[in-house]
User: What shape does this take?
Amino acid sequence: MTNTSKNSSSEQSKESRVLCDIYKGNKKEEMYLYVNKSDGLEKVPEALLSSFGELAQVTTLVLSKTRKLARADILKVLEELRDKGFYLQMPPPKYPTSDQPPSSINKYG
Assistant: This one.
């Protein structure tokens, strides 16, 4: 393997991995803000930041296309981090959606 191919494969692996800080606020449960660690919160609109209330860092993760996330599509997260500088993970719906069978809506029904 030539030095050039080593460099390009090294550069590709760097590009496909993102060091990401994840924050939560005190205003809305289960709403999280993912930001590129190197950018911090500087690319997040002020209106969005204020909707969180007081921010607290939850964790730092290395994200890659092969990483699994519990409630977010990793490809969407990586795309929005690249394009917008942040990814907003909204809370799950509080009420069942209409595509669920009736037995899952009412455990007595």
Notes: The chain has a mean pLDDT of 82. The chain is about 30% helix and 25% strand. The longest strand covers residues 56-64. Helices lie at 3-15, 46-52, 74-83, 102-105.
